[in-house]
């Protein structure tokens, strides 16, 4: 029997449409924001190139794979791009306790990946104690190649929709 972080991670994956999360980055950012909303996990995140990243999530996906609760596969990327990882949960990973988080999971799943990255990065800077203007400035610098005024507005809207407004 699994418990703790693994149990919740499997349940979050299973709560997605077709019990699939398309992309490791999407899974990382979704868990980060869900954890901020009270998901009872204690993953530690550090700010890396794509924003908040937890090695613990990677390790737990591997463990869940060994237990037969998730399966990770790849979809080939367009020419010159990396493949996309798809993480699928077994039916047995579904848990009623995740229902509280279904609206947030649905909103995160619908968000454009770049917007999700920007939102998670902004929230990480805020969580580190940066004032709003400083967090925005740091995010703009870190995500310069992906940043635009419109994307920033959409990231702030996503955070607001999740109840993590500024």
3D structure, described in words:
By secondary structure, this protein is α+β, with helices and mostly antiparallel strands. The protein has one domain. It has helices at residues 4-14, 24-36, 55-66, 102-110, 113-127, 132-142, 149-162, and strands spanning 20-22, 46-48, 51-53, 70-75, 84-89. The protein has a three-stranded antiparallel β-sheet. A hairpin with a 2-residue loop joins strand 2 (46-48) and strand 3 (51-53). Helix 2 crosses helix 5 and helix 5 (113-127) packs across helix 7. It is globular. 39% of the residues are buried.
What key attributes describe this structure?
166 residues, alpha+beta, 3-stranded antiparallel beta sheet, two-stranded antiparallel ribbon, globular
Summarize the structure.
The protein has 166 residues and is an alpha+beta fold.
Rg calculated over all Cα atoms: 16 Å
Can you give the mean pLDDT?
Answer: 94
Proportion of helical residues: 40-55%
What does the main sheet amount to?
3 strands, antiparallel
**Could you list the spans in which at least 5 consecutive residues all have pLDDT below 50?**
none
Order of helices and strands: HEHEEHEEHHHH
Major beta sheet, strand line-up? 1-5-4
> End-to-end distance, in Å?
39 Å
Tell me the count of domains.
1
Roughly what fraction of the amino acids lie in strands? Answer: 5-15%
Write the layout of secondary structure elements.
Elements: H1 4-14, E1 20-22, H2 24-36, E2 46-48, E3 51-53, H3 55-66, E4 70-75, E5 84-89, H4 102-110, H5 113-127, H6 132-142, H7 149-162
Antiparallel strand pairs: 1-5, 2-3, 4-5
